[in-house]
Amino acid sequence: MLNIKTIPQGYLEKMKMNKSWLHTGLILGALFLLFSCAGVRPSSGPVIVTTSGAVRGYADEEQTWSWKGIPYAKPPSGSLRWKAPLPPDPWPGILEARNFAPPCVQRLFAGGPVIGSEDCLYLNIWKPRHHEEPLPVYVFIHGGGNTFGSSSIYPDYHGSRLAQAGEMIFVSMNYRLGPFGWFLHPSLTEDSGNSAEDSSGNYGLLDILRCLEWIQENIAAFGGDPGNVTLAGQSAGGMNVLALLLSERASGLFHRAVCQSGALMTSTPEEGYQRGIEVFHALLVAEGAAKTEEEAARLSSQMTPAERAQYLRAKKPEELLSLYQVVPSGLTDFPFHFTDGHVLPEEGFEALERGTYPNTVPLMIGSNRDEFTMFFPAGSLSENRSSRFRYAVSLGSTLWKADAVDAVARKLTERPDQGPVYAYYFLWGSSHRGEDNVLPGEWSILLGASHSLEVPFFFGSQEIPRESLARPLFTRANRKGRMDLSREMMLYLSNFVYTGNPNTPEEPSTPWLPWSNQQGDEKCIIFDAGEKNSHIHMSYQELHGDTLLDLYGRYMPPEDFNRVMEAVFWR
After folding, report:
1. What is the rounded CA–CA span in Å between residue 187 and residue 209?
2. 103 and which of 116, 220, 283, 318 could share a cystine (Cβ 3.0–4.6 Å)?
3. Among 136, 162, 202, which Cα is nearest to 63's?
4. Is 211:125 a contact under the CB 8 Å cutoff?
5. DSSP characters for 294-352?
6. How far is CA 271 from CA 195, 267, 320, 336, in A?
7. pLDDT for 459-480, tens place per residue?
8. Which residues contact 490 (CB under 8 A, 6 or more apart)?
9. pTM for the whole thing?
10. Can you state the angle between helices 269-286 and 305-314, rounded to 10 degrees?
11. Count of Cβ atoms closer than 10 Å to residue 350 Cβ
């Protein structure tokens, strides 16, 4: 792939003057030589020494080296289930980092099988083979509603293309999902040996924080710059990025942020405890130890906190997951992002309103025009071609932009010391172009610019999994336009990763101006393309949730309106 950028002038010079980075590099380089002289057999990739042991990389696509399946924490199982992650145990010899680790435990949609493992806290690294170092680091958090998914579930998530074209280190990770990643029960917090983190319930977020700590400790050995880390995520990954803007625990662990189709969601600890107690009682009933919830409550009260905690940790994953409802969108109904006062502040996302959040890093944030086509099962609102379906998709998608993009950008920009906020709106594939649609048949209505469709454009993958409904969207007829759009989007992203400004060091065709709260100023950039060329321009549009609810509420049938509100809440 043709490189789309060059390393900014002065970047290498700055790092060469960083004595602490040089000191770390010299030590790890000496260890590497020690391993090399000790008779290590020739390999197809470099051996890197981490704080826990040596790992061997392998040649990957796009002229990159990759290290897959590196443990960044101990397996969070047994007595470590529902505890903060700990650094991994050292391993002897050389870890062959050839294959992805298994996904974290999850259920594949309603009635689907339980897959994955609790031994899942691993990360992956891609590095371009022939570039000067140190390189900025891009850390990607996968989506899936914090319910399902993994760092390797889609080819789109593989980092070889962005690492090579953008000249950066690409890191992805698995993190605990569902009730294994977010869970509270009084017995788990009454253990006197528990730390505030052990009792927080936010184990999925703590996994991400542990991964970022691992990067600070080790990424220099891979040629990365620990002082230039971009934390990025899509869907639930974007939601986790926004949550970590609020976290004092995350301070200094990342220096820029990217949020793709994220959301603002928190739960109170009280909600978590209530749900945890319900789960405990339901387990007793399911195994026959109690016949009713009242009897289960009496039996639970006769157990000590230690006995209850041991009972919960001994349950098989499928026993726990069977007690959680799967909502129509395919996501699991469980509370998460607890405002515990340690990992996340008690005020939650009100911190954005008050300007009291700690991580004021430059932010790139956006959403897609037709987010909600992916959240309504086929035929759920009469025919997908109907006006009912179009109204529902339009309401859900515009609310997403209003609440999770425009409102966030507006609130952050009000704070004087906040880094610049760059907002985008992805339109490729949407039906807004009328007869000039780039998609074949009626795909512009059925899917359009759907949830997650921007990922292959930012990552340059242009690959769609066989099982995805979006596979027919990429055609020979629209190839030139979408490749042109992808090239521009990758350029903006890689510039931002290097400098916190999507316009430097190589000037894109359209300057991307930061969000401004001044009336009449341009707000966000539009990403779109026809069959032959990209169409990128700045927009004055700013959406407000209250206005949208009032407008759509006048014209939509109440049952459709309520369905959309339910889907918005559980996205």
Report:
1. 25
2. 116
3. 162
4. no
5. HHHHHHHHTS-HHHHHHHHHHS-HHHHHTTSPBPTTS-B----SB--SSSS-TTTTHHH
6. 21, 6, 18, 9
7. 998 655 544 555 678 888 999 9
8. 4, 162, 165, 166, 457, 458, 459, 460
9. 0.89
10. 70
11. 15
Name the token pair of 377: 């099962």
Average the pLDDT over each of 205-209, 271-275, 560-564 and give the range with the smallest value: 560-564
Which token pair is 192? 């006197």
Q: Measuring CA to CA, which residue among 164, 165, 175 is closest to residue 126? A: 164
**Tokens describing residue 57:** 């990389």
Say which amino acid occupies 254. Answer: F
181's tokens: 């990643």
For strands 114-115 and 106-107, give the pairing.
antiparallel
For the chain, domains (ranges, CATH) are 42-260 (3.40.50.1820), 365-570 (no CATH)
- CA distances to 36, 263, 531 from 453, in Å: 44, 17, 17
Provide the 8-state DSSP code for 469. T
Predicted confidence at residue 289, as pLDDT, reads 96
* Whether residue 525 has pLDDT greater than 50: yes
d(CA 196, CA 200): 6
* Residues 275, 282: Cα–Cα separation, whole Å: 10
Question: With 90 as the cut, is the pLDDT of residue 405 above it?
Answer: yes
Complete DSSP assignment for 198-258: TTSSBHHHHHHHHHHHHHHHHGGGGTEEEEEEEEEEETHHHHHHHHHHT-GGGTTT-SEEE
Q: Tell me the pLDDT tens digit for each residue of 60-84.
A: 999 999 999 999 999 999 999 999 9
| Strand, helix or coil for residue 32 | helix
With beta carbons less than 8 A apart as the criterion, state whether 493 and 166 touch: yes
Contact 438, 530 (CB under 8 A): yes
Opening angle at CA 105, ends 102 and 110, nearest 5: 120
Confidence of residue 571 (pLDDT cuts 50, 70, 90): very low
Task: Give first-to-last CA distance, the chain, whole Å.
Answer: 35
- The alpha carbon dihedral of 506, 511, 512, 513 has a sign of positive
Q: What share of the chain is helix, strand, coil (3-state, %, to 5)?
A: 40, 15, 45
How far is CA 465 from its chain centroid? Answer: 19
Confidence tier at 390 by pLDDT (50, 70, 90): confident
Say which DSSP state 117 is in. B
3-state secondary structure of 364: strand
**142 — pLDDT class (breaks 50, 70, 90):** very high
Any residues with CB less than 8 A from the CB of 404 and at least 6 apart, and which?
A: 242, 261, 262, 263, 264, 367
Single-letter residue type at 496? F
226-231-233 Cα angle (round to 5)? 155
The average pLDDT across 125-140 equals 94
- What does each C-alpha distance from 253 to 176, 212, 242, 247, 249 come to in angstroms? 20, 6, 14, 11, 9
State the Cα–Cα distance between residues 328 and 564, nearest whole angstrom: 11
Predicted confidence at residue 443, as pLDDT, reads 86
Given this model, what pLDDT does residue 109 score? 72
Contact 432, 369 (CB under 8 A): yes
Q: Are strands 47-49 and 54-56 parallel, antiparallel or unpaired?
A: antiparallel
Classify residue 471 by its DSSP letter: G
What does pLDDT average to over the chain? 87
